[in-house]
Design a protein that fits this description.
- Chain B: This is Nitric oxide reductase subunit C.
- Chain B: GO terms for molecular function: electron transfer activity; heme binding; metal ion binding.
- Chain B: InterPro entries: Cyt_c-like_dom (IPR009056), Cyt_c-like_dom_sf (IPR036909).
- Chain B: Keywords: Heme, Iron, Membrane, Metal-binding, Transmembrane, Transmembrane helix.
- The structure holds 2 protein chains of 2 kinds.
- Chain A is mainly alpha-helical.
- Chain B has a two-stranded antiparallel sheet with strand order 1-2.
- Chain B is mainly alpha-helical.
- Helices cover 51% and strands 3% of the residues of chain B.
- The N and C termini of chain B lie far apart (48 Å).
- Classes of the chains: A mainly alpha, B mainly alpha.
- The interface between A and B is large, with 77 and 75 residues.
Chain lengths: 482, 144
């Protein structure tokens, strides 16, 4: 860590991981409600649990992105953060507002919450992922503006790099596209059309810019590969992300009342959406292969390679699986969508946030990397969570395929609830995989508390000494040969 | 990526390509807006339908159901529920009205929202209007 102000990232990362834990707990509650329908009813009905699950996801990723930016921007810009104090104030504003919102979801009926928070003034609530009360939405805008201003001023004051520009474009895009959450026409078709300008243009648009720049930053640091090479890759990845992703929005316009030409347009462009993720995988593996130094933080390297692979599988392959209009006609809004959503969010966004945390957290704690023992635990966490997520995805996919068959494709389609009973076994298996995921998360969190600074210093020195002695050996051999 | 392909070229593809597709997307959006009225039958959006959408939103129905395939996958699709219930608004209203407060043991249960008769009627009108949107023949069958 080169700049004192980078330290504010730590607060953000801790909050992110806390909220992540909450997200997983509510995921388990919902998973159980899928098979034991009245579990916690009527105290926490499914819709409330789901809102908490998905809203916590969004908020913890936003905390992660902000923390990442506060860490990365000063180092890229080679200057202290414009105002660390503002970053800390906004942190508490966001955390308190987020916590109050979640409590609101849990403690009062949603309709009452809508009434209390002025939904009559400007109705924006009750739309998937954008359920936040008006007050919270305004709060998010204020926090986002303050945040973009703070990191923007830092960038303007210092060195401008490709990584920081792409990250800034991503963050500004995130803030601007969120404004569409305030637009809620009374016409459902138009409501849905522009709703995707937030939801799709976030996760399959500007967030990919954030993802790419975070990955590029960590790869430069841990591999020592030339910045020029990495930046060229970054440009190509984000270029492909937007070229395919913008018109790829069309794959959400198939059945909501929009004209039919979106069917082939959406199919063609979203079929290309895996390309940037495939490039990310190639990128990560290539850079790690070409590395010029051994970094003692092997866990961070694992996260970097993992996010490429899992994002490609989840966002790319599982997305493609049901993106073509003739296929989507049968699979739209089934468990296949849920399968894709789970692996895509984990692989692309959850993992990249954990990647930057893995790289930056030890540095903020005054170590190059954590001790061996701690890294081993972290990697156990990585594998447990990742493998569990693969199984969650596979079970949901199986559930989805059977659902499509029984409810949509056969000559004698069965009612939704009948089909849900028939696929209960897959929901049980998914819940079991979810429990393993929670275990993995526990191990991951536990890894932060393992090992002292002294232990970390000793282990890191060992790695560096080994690398140096190897380098010396090689150069001696070369001299001898000469 | 070899030496003849420079960083500047990559940068131009990023900025040029993105700008181009943003413009195409905006153009298509404009066109979609022009032809939507024939598909969404907006002339039938009455005050009741508008209130119905608000009731739909303020009770977070999307948190369990899908509507035109979007939402949660916990409860049935409602974009065509009007047709599934035999074109009966009364059936929809009765279903919502008589949900047991404590749910049904072991089953997925819909909460009792205590909607007024006016709200119930509006919600049913909203679902009826939704079922008349031209969705390119989706869902594939009446089961949603």
């Amino acid at each position: 860590m080169k700049y004192e102000s980078q330290k504010v990232a730590r607060l953000y990362f801790i909050a992110a991981l806390g909220l992540f834990t909450g997200q997983i707990l509510f995921g388990l509650i919902m998973g159980l409600q899928y098979v034991i329908g009245d579990f916690m009813f009527p105290a926490i009905p499914f819709n409330v649990a789901r809102m908490v699950h998905t809203n916590l996801l969004i908020v913890w990723l936003l905390f992660g992105f902000m923390g990442a930016a506060y860490y990365l921007i000063p180092e890229e810009s080679e200057t202290e953060l414009w105002s660390p104090k503002l970053a800390i104030v906004l942190f508490w504003v966001f955390l308190v507002a987020g916590a109050l919102t979640i409590l609101g979801y849990l403690l009062v009926p949603y309709a009452r919450l809508a009434e209390m928070t002025g939904n009559d003034l400007l109705p924006t609530m009750g739309r998937e992922f954008l359920e936040q009360p008006l007050l919270t939405k305004i709060g998010i805008v204020i926090v986002a503006l303050g945040f973009v201003f703070n990191v923007g001023m830092t960038v303007l004051r210092g060195r401008k790099t490709v990584i920081s520009s792409i990250l800034m474009i991503g963050l500004i895009g995130l803030a601007v596209m969120f404004l569409f959450s305030f637009y809620n026409p009374e016409n459902l078709v138009r409501d849905k059309f522009y709703w995707w300008w937030v939801v799709h243009l976030w996760v399959e648009g500007v967030w990919e810019l954030i993802l790419g720049s975070l990955l590029a930053f960590v790869l430069i640091k841990v591999t020592g590969v030339d910045r020029e090479v990495i930046e060229k890759w970054l440009y190509m990845i984000v270029a492909m992300a937007l070229i395919t992703g913008i018109l790829g929005t069309g794959h959400h316009y198939f059945w909501i009342g929009a004209p039919e030409y979106w069917q082939w347009l959406g199919s063609v462009f979203s079929a290309m959406e895996p390309i940037p993720f495939f490039m990310m995988t190639l990128f990560a593996f290539n850079m790690v292969n070409k590395r010029r130094r051994e970094h003692p933080n092997r866990a961070a390297i694992l996260w970097a390679m993992g996010t490429g692979v899992m994002a490609f599988l989840g966002a790319g392959v599982w997305g493609f699986l049901h993106t073509l209009a003739p296929v989507n006609y049968y699979t739209h809004g089934t468990q296949l969508t849920a399968a894709h959503g789970h692996m895509a969010f984990y692989g692309a966004y959850a993992m990249v946030v954990m990647c930057i945390i893995s790289y930056a957290m030890p540095l903020m704690r005054g170590r190059i990397a954590n001790s061996n023992r701690s890294q081993v635990a972290e990697m156990w966490g990585f594998w447990l969570m990742t493998v569990s997520m693969v199984f969650i995805t596979l079970f949901l996919t199986a559930a989805g395929v059977v659902q499509v068959w029984l409810q949509r494709y056969t000559d004698t389609p069965m009612p939704f609830m009948v089909v849900q009973d028939k696929i209960a076994i897959f929901f049980w298996l998914r819940e079991l995989a979810g429990v393993f995921f929670l275990g993995g998360l526990g191990v991951y969190l536990w890894s932060f508390f393992i090992g002292t600074d002294a232990e970390a210093a000793r282990d890191n020195a060992k790695v560096l000494a080994k690398v140096n002695s190897k380098a010396t050996e090689e150069s001696t051999q070369e001299t001898a040969r000469a | 990526m070899n030496e003849t392909f420079t960083k500047a070229m990559a940068r131009n593809i990023f900025y040029g390509g993105s700008l181009f597709f943003i413009l195409v997307f905006l153009g298509l959006t404009y066109h979609t807006e022009k032809v939507l009225p024939e598909r969404d039958h907006r002339e039938n959006i009455t005050e009741q339908v508008t209130l119905g959408k608000k009731v739909w939103e303020e009770n977070n129905c999307i948190g369990c159901h899908t509507l035109l395939g979007e939402g949660a996958y916990f409860a049935p699709e409602l974009g065509n529920v009007y047709k599934r219930f035999g074109g009966s608004k009364e059936a929809i209203m009765a279903f919502i009205k008589y949900r047991p407060v404590d749910g049904i043991e072991g089953r997925r249960s819909m909460p009792q929202f205590n909607l007024s008769d006016e709200e119930l009627e509006a919600l049913a009108e909203f679902l009826k209007w939704t079922s008349e949107i031209n969705t390119s023949n989706w869902p594939p069958n009446i089961q949603g």
